[in-house]
Amino acid sequence: MNFLYILDLIGTAAFAASGAWAGVRRDMDLFGVLVLGMVTATGGGTLRDLLLGDFPPFCLKNEVYLYISIAVSLAVFFQHRRLGFLQHPLLYFDAVGLGTFVVIGTGKAIEYNMGFIGAVSMGIMTATAGGVVRDVLSNRVPLILRKEVYASACLAGGALMFLLHHTPMPPTLIAIVAAMTVITLRLLAIRHNWSLPRAQT
Description:
Elements: H1 2-25, H2 30-52, H3 58-61, H4 64-79, H5 87-111, H6 116-137, H7 151-164, H8 171-192
């Protein structure tokens, strides 16, 4: 699972950058930018671990996640004028993080013998809860409540992973297939501006 761990760190960095950028755009001070960066990167996994009863949360067991979040947030705060060119590529790194976090969250829930809804929910929560807190703290409507294909991509990947878990397919291959499903759906949604239907008014 070293491949997934590397993707996990990339996703953590991307999520931290998106949180820090939100703080910079809202004219927050250094502390506010750091909080948004760290919450976005680690909030989903922390909430998942608390609900599963896994103490201390993952980011306190392996502080590499915290160091990456802090370092990226500081870089965005001090160099945001020079790093503006990363804002578009950041969407693609974010998609990688999304797929990886879904797999890690769903996989951990499966290890805790949770059923279909519980396992998929843990995957979605791991991938999106940090972003929800980021948007709430920066006074924006959370991304998962907007029309973009975001949480629905996580749902598809988590459901696929749970179903494939009951087949003879190797766990590593299952994780890669599920992660790539989320990443592909998210990238296609970005490229083609896909969105879920909204109620007609």
